């Protein structure tokens, strides 16, 4: 029997890679789209060979009635909740919308599932931003590390994490939280630092740009590839019991490290082109993230195909192809 999966946020970076993965495994894949006035932008990150296999419905995480309608129609075996206002810096500019879409949106989905298809397995996309500046004594963050977020986005994700645990315990629903550390790819939004750096560095190399403006160069992050992380999502829902898992690489790099590597690969001296702009600083900074993914590796059998360097190399190659045309 063919499994049916529903992905909220299917038009995002993770949603597009997850759709590819599930289709390759023989799933019937449905996606939820929030209406956009420019229809072409809604599915731009989904390759055509994948798009033709998808079944798409309009719904909004802030409108529970629209979610109920979709769930009644599909009756999915697995639900991957990837929809969110996911930009941390912008969450300071739009805190109420972020709380509604990223936090209350999860509750809307859980209640809609409870009422219409309570046996569906649910994956909730959590974030390393939930930890804030809390770090265990050994320098890592893991499933048991206390959560003290330092952004409206992080706060909304903590609410989502906790309400998922509450519904799991209260109603016996299969709900698992993935606590994902930063993950990137050529499909990452170009207002996120990794793709912003790679894109602008390639433009500088080709004479199409003169400099790049960034925020805190000393912020340290655990960066992996989105392709690896969607595999972890899928593995989480293949378990017999719901649980929570950190997905990370266990290796941390600063923004300065990221910049230096990308510019060096393009034979450029980054110090000649990078400017620091307070506009990109957060009101409260998150200085350090490094995740311990031992539980995911041990229980799920999860492994990485990409390193920090091969991930960035793929992104450099992508933007070279775009601009050399």
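Sequence proposed for the structure above (325 residues):
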């Amino acid at each position: 029997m063919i499994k049916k999966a529903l992905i909220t946020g299917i038009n995002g970076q993770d949603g597009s890679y997850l759709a590819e993965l599930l289709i390759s495994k023989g799933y019937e894949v449905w996606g939820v789209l929030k209406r956009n006035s420019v229809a072409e932008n809604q599915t731009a990150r989904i390759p055509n060979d994948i798009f033709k296999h998808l079944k798409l419905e309009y719904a909004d995480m802030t409108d529970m009635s629209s979610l109920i309608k979709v769930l009644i129609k599909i009756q999915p075996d697995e639900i991957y909740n990837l929809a969110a206002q996911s930009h941390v810096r912008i969450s300071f500019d739009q805190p109420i919308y972020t709380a509604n879409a990223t936090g209350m949106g999860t509750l809307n989905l859980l209640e809609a599932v409870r009422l219409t298809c309570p046996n569906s397995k649910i994956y909730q996309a959590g974030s390393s931003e939930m930890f804030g500046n809390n770090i265990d004594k050994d320098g890592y963050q893991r499933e048991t590390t206390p959560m003290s977020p330092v952004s409206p986005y992080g706060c909304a994700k903590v609410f989502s994490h906790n309400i998922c645990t509450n519904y799991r315990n209260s109603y016996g629903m299969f709900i698992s939280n993935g606590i994902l550390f930063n993950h990137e790819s050529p499909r990452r939004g170009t207002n996120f630092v990794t793709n912003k750096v790679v894109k602008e560095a390639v433009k500088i190399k080709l004479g199409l740009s003169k400099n790049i403006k960034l925020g805190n160069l000393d912020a340290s992050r655990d960066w992996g590839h989105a392709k690896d992380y969607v595999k972890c999502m899928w593995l989480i829902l293949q378990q017999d019991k719901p649980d929570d898992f950190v997905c990370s690489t266990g290796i941390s790099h600063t923004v300065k490290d990221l910049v230096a590597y990308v510019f060096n690969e393009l034979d450029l001296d980054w110090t000649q082109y990078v400017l620091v702009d307070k506009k990109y600083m957060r009101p409260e900074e998150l200085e350090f993230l490094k995740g311990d993914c031992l539980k995911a590796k041990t229980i799920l059998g999860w492994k990485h195909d990409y390193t920090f360097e091969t991930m960035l190399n793929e992104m450099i190659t992508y933007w070279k192809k775009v601009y050399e045309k």
